[in-house]
Amino acid sequence: MATVSPFRGWRYNPETVGDMASVLCPPYDMITTETQEALKRRNQYNVIHLEAGEGLDWNSSVKEQYAEASRLFDRWRQEGVLRQDPEPCYYLMRHSFPMAGKNMVRVGLIASVGLEDYQTRQVLPHEYTEAPAIRDRVMLMESLSANISPIMSIYRDAEGVLDPLFKQVMSGAPEIDAKDGSGSATALWPISDPDVQGQIKKFFASRPVYLADGHHRYEAARQYQLDRHAENAGATAGNLAHNFVMMTLIAFDDPGLVVLGYHRTLNGVPEEKLGKIKARLDELFDSEPVSGDADALVEQVTRLGAGQRLMASVDQIGARLLTLKDSAVAPDWGPLAASEAWVLEEQVLRPELGDATLDHLGFIHDHAEAVSRAKSGELQMAFLLKPFPLDAFESIVGGGQRLPRKSTFFFPKLPTGLVINRLEGEL
To answer: CA-to-CA distance for 295 and 301, rounded, in angstroms?
Structure first.
């Protein structure tokens, strides 16, 4: 199935950059202007200088847009700020972070994964993408010939094959142990032992990987690969770096694999249509009033929704728990009936709004903001959704279907800057 290979990663030289936590950043899609400026001030070598597009002018050429990042990347490699490992490695990451008063820990394997068309079922997507974001990441790869941030993917290890291998690796001292002021800590162990590498590669050769976060980056890497193939017939050789993309692979059963709810908002709907939407909700869902602040509402949706299809609606009048009626589920709904987001979009909103549905439907992962804006009347309605269950995720995506957009919010995002994957030459 998936080809999961070691590679010669480029990594920061701690003797040059100092505190390793100060050079890491989130993936590009989480970086605001304010975040970008703060990270630049934190450390002159912060990977934000390579990861984010700064002041892009879409009327200029590709090289002009990312020219400064490209020059900086070259200089950092020449000056030894970044150094390439002498032999191919897997990289084991342990990422700990605080959440709801607990210290969560997840373990991920950073590897180079063979790029494949989705139809081969080796790499399984769960959401659709948008062309502008793909174009932006292709432009970055064209300029740097590198993957700066890893895609987050997940895999099933029901037999627990990799767990003892990873524990063995982590019994030694990590080469990187970076702690930041938020309570997060990231440790990294390169894996160069041929025997361990062979066991890891064999494990993944019999199973697919599921894209969790980074669909745009995967499809950009796939386009970059096809562009290289079009330029040179010899570029299809399996061991060439541009035929792979960097991923961090995490097990479905990892206790630190956290999925949060991705909520919906509604606004700008004409009153007559809004009334019909509310009537449709009453037709499909049992409804009861519920009280409490945003945290309490999300807690109830998560707890009560564990065994049933349930969400909460919020408007200026108040909040209500909506439980999908079993009698409302039509036979032709199929597996996606497990998704409250799909029911809301396809069975409630689209019948009234048609092709204009996305003009009125918004997506937000901050439940407090969603509730506040709905109660104030800034939004017509907000819908609070539970985290999408990973067993349903595996079943639906493994069966070849995709979830509604913004169905999952894997938390937190992976750190960028631990390892960089150069896309020139061989792995």
So the answer is: 10
